[in-house]
Q: What sequence folds into this?
């Protein structure tokens, strides 16, 4: 099943990535090549096989209901590209129409 | 932060299990988490850890008393997820934009999802109120909506009258009060109705409630952007809710509000309305029952049949008024009562119940008048002195000396010849005026019934002066 | 012999005998870095000489004051640049995190510091650990010390090259699909990928959470065991760490492998395996047999589906793990954004390199509506089959041995524009991550063209001691030349 340009654009929208026209065309071809590799799995009989998801059989790992160590706000915000007091600043979340 | 990992807080597993049991849901033996992927500024990882394929519990219900009948609301599932941050519009700070506060991120919360069983705003309101009472009684939420301890997302669809198929729904998030739920539902029902009436189609979307403008604004606009790409969360292991956990949680659960209400009506013979109010908060219910207990102890076999109803009036009206006037909470008043407890051995609630019972006992024995009892209660809350002593100290004991009262009545009538004349001319409602004058001279201590009787006798014997 | 040329075993002996100090060793290492780094680009960040030497002196003082200094006390260690180091930039080889400085230490780093190790700097890597050649680093490709026209492998290519060149005796890497073992093989050093859950992932910048594991790079097997012992063990901050106690990983059992059953899977010697690699690995198998091990032919039937299953699972998890880089809280923020959505899109598109975008796109696609069952779920089922292949193998053998990679180090630029051939070069390493088992790559000589070949030793979960035993017996018996490549 071949992926088309529109599919790539849709996936880019979900992944929050922007591509130039050229990149889109090139990536569509490339993605089809890689998907052909993935499609080899179609030949494997997996009827009745449980998916693995996690490799360890450990269960019930909990923490207690106590606060842990806290990062001081200045350290937590030290890498922020745009900070205002103890918050991160971004362009308006709700459009100001 | 890059590299940080989640760990499940065991307390939320117990809380969610308690909620599931209270809502008659079947608790899964095994549950796990998934990632729900979408971009939003209040979601720092770009995905939310939630339960998707394996929620903690499914298929419950809650019976809600509504307009005289019982409405059963289906519960689709109860699950655990992590909280997001909050964004606030940056009004100051120059360039505008939004500010993201991530302090709440990752805090576990319990989400309850209903089936589409609610038919109008009043039903929704009744359901949410009952749900809130349950959550508060379980100790799962404080119920303080402004603190964000309890929040609602609503889904709503409209359909033409008589239609059997439900219409397309929209979700409204960010509802932080019962009032906001009502407003948002009304807004959205109206908007959808207008869309349909104009021949349009309702788009399935998520809206954010904007409290200031009282409008719902679309959160994500692009078609298909809500493909959440759920997959099992690899950073957390599955967890089991075994029989032992369920038993432990069940044993620690208090009586639920519905059961409390039925019990109060049955045991104390109080009206359903009273039971409803008294069970709204666990602390109120405890105070009520301790006070009734203490009062019956004090009155012994002489207790009138209405004693429990009297306590109910005191808790619902007089105590509530006392709190409102002083802008304090029941917990604060209880703490104050405990600090006044001479033995120091009582907790706040029982210290408060004990003093309240002292006051009501005096009142029911007829030793203080109703206004005096209220003054006595106010005073008893401010000091450590025994209530009996306070009665004497404040000179609040009822004036039941008929002779003394009669001479007072005569004085009052003598001082108001005009009013006496009008009374005899037919303005009988002046009785209340005269009684008020008499009570005023005793500082509210006179028994109003006795005062009224004496007054009427004096008026009838007419102008003996 | 210069101090920087010493293996960990020699360093441990020398330090405890007082033949040299940690300060002298560390100075030698720093001089070596200064001299060879321009040709290699193995590091993204080297800490200031003053700070490093002060730490070395503290280690010397603690050793002098007696007590029982740990095996790593005063030993210089490098850390891959996707493992968080408090106050020290952790770029993940990406423009996105070029100026990101973590406010906390990864558990593995905290344990290293606790053991007295001297952290010298952060090693270069394929961006976000996505790559098999180190050519995907935003800060320039690392070169293979054996031939600077060739790649060191990836994604822990910086750690492998640094150890191979004597820039540092020990380094931490991370292995999601072979990212420690493959570069160790290409650079002629020892690389270990522990059992999934053996080492805390807390502070390891996530690529594929169900596959990622911090591993070790060293010149000798003893160094790998000591480094892993220091960082392994349950961590309350990582729910997926194992509760199993960490045993002593390396008993001195000499070279006797009597009683050990070793399996050689046919599928690892099929089409695509380079002749000179096959020859060296076969020689190594013969050496192991000569040490008393029983050698059996076994089968890993689903081997050839490993690459497809691996890339689907890894990319799906990566698409979520890398969603946090949105220009809001840390990392690159675009200057060209007009609104929130363009801030996301522009910041991500400018901050990520081509391979990272490719993987995010593939992973997003594999999870998206309509494709989840066909791709992601199918891959997870195939993963179960592959894990069962190994479970079955370990019913009859203690260890499985095979080549680490089908070829020796390839030339820079040779595969970077052909993702499919790059992915296929991971065919021998990815099954280990899918199954969650531990594996080690130990050098087994040089090919005809003078490039290192790696022998991979795989064992069942939590059986690292057997793995180290076989590796060390082979290392000693083979007498592999431990001299450094000429630079």
A:
């Amino acid at each position: 099943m071949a992926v088309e340009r529109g599919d790539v654009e849709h996936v880019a929208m979900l992944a929050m990535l922007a591509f130039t026209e050229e990149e889109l065309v090139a990536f569509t071809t490339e993605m089809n090549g890689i998907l052909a590799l993935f499609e080899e799995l179609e030949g494997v009989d997996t009827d009745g096989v449980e998916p693995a998801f996690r490799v360890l059989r450990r269960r019930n790992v909990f923490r207690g209901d106590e606060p842990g160590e806290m990062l001081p706000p200045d350290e937590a915000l030290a890498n922020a590209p745009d900070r205002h007091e103890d918050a991160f600043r971004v362009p308006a979340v709700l459009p100001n129409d | 932060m890059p590299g940080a990992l989640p760990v499940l807080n065991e307390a939320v597993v117990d809380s969610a299990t308690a909620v599931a049991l209270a809502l008659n849901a079947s608790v899964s033996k095994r549950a796990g988490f998934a990632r729900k992927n979408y971009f939003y500024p209040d979601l720092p990882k770009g995905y939310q850890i939630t339960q998707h394929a394996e929620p903690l519990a499914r298929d419950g219900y809650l019976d809600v008393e509504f307009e005289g009948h019982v409405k059963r609301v289906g519960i689709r599932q109860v699950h655990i997820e992590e909280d997001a941050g909050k964004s606030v519009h940056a009004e100051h700070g120059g360039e505008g934009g939004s500010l993201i506060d991530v302090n709440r991120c990752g805090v576990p919360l319990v989400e309850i999802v209903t089936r589409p069983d609610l038919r109008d705003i009043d039903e929704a309101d009744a359901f949410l109120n009952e749900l809130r009472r349950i959550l508060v009684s379980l100790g799962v939420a404080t119920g303080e909506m402004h603190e964000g301890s309890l929040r609602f997302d609503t889904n709503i669809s409209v359909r033409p009258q008589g239609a059997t198929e439900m219409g397309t729904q929209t979700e409204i998030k960010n509802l932080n009060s019962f009032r906001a739920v009502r407003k948002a539902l009304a807004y959205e029902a109206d908007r959808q109705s207008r869309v349909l009436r104009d021949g349009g189609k309702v788009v399935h979307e998520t809206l954010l409630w904007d409290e200031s403008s009282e409008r719902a604004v679309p959160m994500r606009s692009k078609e298909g952007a809500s493909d959440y790409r759920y997959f099992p969360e690899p950073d957390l292991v599955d967890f089991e809710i075994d029989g032992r956990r369920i038993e432990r949680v069940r044993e620690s659960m208090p009586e639920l509000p519905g059961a409390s209400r039925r019990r109060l009506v049955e045991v104390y013979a109080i009206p359903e309305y009273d039971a409803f109010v008294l069970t709204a908060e666990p602390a109120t219910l405890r105070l009520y029952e301790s006070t009734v207990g203490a009062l019956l102890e004090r009155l012994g076999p002489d207790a009138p049949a209405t004693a429990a109803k009297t306590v109910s009036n005191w808790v619902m009206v007089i105590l509530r008024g006392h709190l409102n006037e002083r802008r304090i909470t029941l917990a604060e008043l209880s703490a104050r009562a405990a600090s006044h407890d001479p033995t120091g051995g009582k907790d706040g609630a029982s210290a408060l119940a004990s003093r309240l019972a002292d006051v009501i006992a005096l009142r029911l024995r007829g030793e203080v008048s109703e206004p005096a009892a209220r003054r006595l209660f106010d005073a008893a809350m401010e000091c450590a002195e025994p209530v009996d002593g306070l009665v004497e100290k404040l000179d609040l004991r009822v004036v039941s000396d008929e002779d003394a009262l009669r001479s007072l009545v005569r004085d009052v009538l003598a001082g108001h010849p005009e009013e006496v004349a009008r009374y005899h001319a037919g303005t009988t409602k002046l009785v209340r005026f005269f009684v008020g004058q008499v009570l005023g001279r005793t500082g509210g201590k006179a028994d109003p019934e006795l005062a009224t009787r004496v007054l009427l006798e004096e008026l009838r014997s007419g102008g003996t002066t | 012999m210069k101090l920087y040329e010493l293996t960990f075993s020699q360093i441990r002996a020398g330090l405890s005998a007082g033949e040299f100090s940690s300060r002298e060793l560390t100075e030698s290492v720093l001089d070596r870095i200064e001299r060879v780094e321009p040709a290699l680009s193995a590091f993204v960040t080297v800490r200031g000489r003053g700070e490093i030497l002060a730490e070395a002196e503290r280690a010397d003082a603690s050793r002098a004051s007696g007590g029982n200094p740990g095996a790593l006390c005063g030993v210089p260690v490098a850390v891959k640049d996707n493992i968080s180091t408090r106050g020290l930039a952790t770029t993940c080889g990406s423009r996105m995190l070029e100026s990101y400085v973590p406010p906390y230490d990864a558990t593995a780093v905290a344990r290293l510091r606790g053991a007295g190790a001297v952290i010298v700097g952060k090693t270069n890597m394929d961006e976000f650990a996505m790559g098999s050649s180190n050519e995907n680093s935003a800060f320039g490709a690392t070169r293979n010390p054996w031939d600077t026209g060739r790649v060191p492998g990836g994604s822990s290519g910086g750690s492998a090259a640094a150890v191979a060149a004597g820039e540092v005796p020990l380094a931490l890497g991370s292995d999601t699909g072979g990212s420690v073992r493959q570069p160790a093989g290409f650079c002629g050093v020892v690389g270990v990928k522990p059992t999934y859950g053996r080492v805390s992932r807390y502070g390891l910048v996530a690529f594929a959470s169900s596959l990622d594991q911090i591993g070790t790079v060293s010149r000798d097997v003893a160094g790998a065991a000591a480094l892993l012992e220091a960082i392994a063990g349950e961590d309350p901050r990582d729910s997926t760490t194992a509760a199993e106690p960490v045993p002593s990983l390396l008993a001195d059992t000499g070279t006797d492998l009597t009683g050990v059953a070793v399996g050689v899977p046919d599928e690892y010697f099929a089409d695509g395996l380079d002749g000179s690699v096959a020859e060296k690995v076969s020689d190594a198998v013969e050496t192991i047999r000569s040490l008393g091990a029983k050698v059996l032919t076994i089968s890993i039937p689903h081997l050839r589906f490993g690459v497809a299953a691996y890339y689907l699972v890894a990319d799906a998890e990566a698409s979520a793990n890398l969603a946090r880089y949105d220009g809001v809280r840390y990392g690159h923020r675009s200057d060209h954004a007009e609104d929130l959505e363009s801030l996301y899109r522009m910041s991500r598109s400018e901050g990520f390199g081509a391979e990272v975008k490719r993987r995010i796109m593939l992973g997003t696609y594999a999870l998206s509506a309509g494709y989840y069952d066909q791709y992601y779920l199918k891959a997870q089922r195939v993963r179960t089959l592959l894990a069962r292949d190994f479970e079955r193998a370990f019913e009859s053998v203690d260890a499985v041995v095979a080549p680490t990679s089908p070829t020796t180090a390839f030339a820079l630029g040779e595969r970077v524009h052909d993702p499919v051939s790059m992915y296929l070069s991971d065919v021998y390493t990815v099954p280990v991550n899918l199954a969650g088992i531990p594996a080690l790559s130990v050098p087994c000589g040089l090919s005809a063209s003078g490039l290192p070949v790696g022998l991979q030793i795989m064992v069942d979960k939590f059986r690292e001691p057997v793995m180290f035993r076989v590796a060390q017996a082979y290392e000693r018996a083979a007498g592999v030349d431990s001299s450094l490549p000429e630079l």
In short: Chain B has 16 helices and 16 strands. The interface with chain A takes residues 1, 7-11, 13, 30, 39, 41, 87-90, 93, 95-102, 208, 210, 217, 222, 224-225, 227, 229, 232, 234, 236-240 of chain B (CB under 8 Å).
